[in-house]
Amino acid sequence: ESTERTDFVRERVQHDLSTDRFGGRVQTRFPPEPNGYLHIGHAKAIHLDFELAREFGGTCVLRFDDTNPDTEDTSFVEGIIADLNWLGYEPDDVVYASDYFEQLYEWAELLVHDGKAYVDDQDLETIRAQRGGYGKPGIESPCRDRSVEENLDLLRRMRAGEFDDGAMVLRAKIDMQHENMQLRDPVMYRIRRGHHHRTGDSWVIYPTYDWAHGQSDAIEGTTHSLCTLEFDSHRPLYDWFLEQLPLPSDRPYQTEFARLELTHTITSKRKLAQLVADGVVDGWDDPRLPTVRALRRRGYPAESIREFCTYIGVARTNSRHQIELLESFVRTRLNRTAQRRMAVLRPLRLSITNWPTGDDGEPVVEHFDIVNNPENADDGTRSVAFTGELWIEQDDFMVDPPKKFFRLSPGREVRLRGAFLVTCTGFETDDDGNVTRVLAEYDPETKGGSAPDGRKVKSTMHWVSAPHALSATVALYERLFSAEVPGGESGDPFDDLDRSSREVLSECKVEAALGDTTPGEVVQFERLGYFALDPRDPMWFHRTVGLRDEWAN
Ligand code: ATP
Ligand code: MG
Ligand code: MG
């Protein structure tokens, strides 16, 4: 996968290197909050942060932005590391914003000391209302003129736990009339008693995103702080905080790029968490979700996710990519790597009435060598057993077919893939008229699937020998959100949920070689698509993608 193409982020880095802005250093960071698992949008940010560092001989750090005790958890920390590694990236360091709590606090005292921060004990609603809005003046808090001594005393007592949650906040003293709302005396600390996954109960005040982020970048020696467009308006605040502190002059700076959005899906951690909590999906790795662990379980190769990220690149305007584009990267890669197998999802019995019996009085078992992957000769062939009792797909047979149906029907001859030509001679039904068994005769002269007299058949069907078949469960998936833009009409993405987006077929019959599939491996079921073996359940397959490329270029 080549990342030769350039973009505005890479041009900036190039420029900084040519002007020696950071002494030739490039350091990026990926800063997830450990309050959920990674999704495809994070994969885009990860790809940018890590590939950029790699291309310029720099480093990339994984920093957990763990400044909110209520929603964060160690299990998310571990899960994020695992997902990141699976995507193919190894951070140069793993660090935590919570490691900087003491340093951040010292700096906060410094700002108070310099008259650049104050304690506000109004309630949050009042503070919010006083902020004003665009074209609407802000109102200065009556607390703005507290003395340095009083502010210091209050801040220390806030830290010591003398006040209730929400009783007061520390705010930066910037400009209540600033046209950028972010600079209207933003909150730096709030009081919150919650057990933090790393610092336990040692803190009752927690820094806000804005107070923690740039300072964490600076502590780590980040050079290029890349984030999504919605932080655009935070950039002046990012710079303001850094300018107030005793830091070297080669301070990090922020660059924003467009979020990744995909059709038929959502990339909001909060909403994904709600789908999990509401039981709409089975968990964070339900194959219908756009989380990294779900895509992995569904059989998406990590390489194809990286190739997709390279292809879409980074830009400064938000856009929504078609999910079919991502799928076409998945399909292209799987086409090269997946072993071909035969599996019957909705089985119907096919009996070959002229199948021979051996000297032992038992039906003969024939073996065919079938190519594992036409895209890769090195994958060789496998031996597949054939008998007179087979499973075929229910929808490969019709009693009374329309004109364009070329599969099996009374009197029609078809090819059983890699085996013989067979002609349907009849069928059996139950009391309700449902077909329970199809009867056919095979032509012994057509071994391997072609007729010596050169006659052609219009259809080749997959099959599984009934006495050799293994039972399996297969899950088929539709889009979890039926609308291209979930919530595009009503505003609530959950209105567009397709609650029947999973179909579980539990009576599938598959060829014996599928018993050797390794957990997580993706195979192609001939004519049906690509299927991933579940990592935990040995006979459960998830459909990764269908065979046909649906991406409209
Ligand atoms: P969400 O809104 O899904 O909860 P977040 O931004 O709050 O996402 P973080 O864990 O803070 O989640 O994200 C870590 C990094 O990933 C941030 O730098 C963020 O900008 C980036 N990121 C998150 N979502 C996307 C996305 N859809 N596309 C690109 N980058 C993203
Ligand atoms: Mg965030
Ligand atoms: Mg967010």
Automatic annotation (TrEMBL):
Pfam families: tRNA-synt_1c (PF00749), tRNA-synt_1c_C (PF03950), tRNA-synt_1c_C2 (PF20974). Residues 338-443 form the Glutamyl/glutaminyl-tRNA synthetase class Ib anti-codon binding domain. Keywords: Aminoacyl-tRNA synthetase, ATP-binding, Cytoplasm, Ligase, Nucleotide-binding, Protein biosynthesis. It comes from Ilumatobacter fluminis. Its EC number is 6.1.1.18. GO terms for cellular component: cytosol. GO terms for biological process: glutaminyl-tRNA aminoacylation. The keyword Nucleotide-binding applies. GO terms for molecular function: ATP binding; glutamine-tRNA ligase activity. Gene3D superfamilies: HUPs, Ribosomal Protein L25, Chain P. PANTHER family: GLUTAMATE--TRNA LIGASE, GLUTAMINE-TRNA LIGASE. Residues 460-534 form the tRNA synthetases class I (E and Q) anti-codon binding domain. InterPro entries: Gln-tRNA-synth, Gln/Glu-tRNA_Ligase, Glu/Gln-tRNA-synth, Glu/Gln-tRNA-synth_Ib_cat-dom, Glu/Gln-tRNA-synth_Ib_codon-bd, Rbsml_bL25/Gln-tRNA_synth_N, Ribosomal_bL25/Gln-tRNA_synth, Rossmann-like_a/b/a_fold. This is Glutamine--tRNA ligase. Residues 26-335 form the Glutamyl/glutaminyl-tRNA synthetase class Ib catalytic domain. Belongs to the class-I aminoacyl-tRNA synthetase family. Signal peptide: none annotated. It comes from the Bacteria.
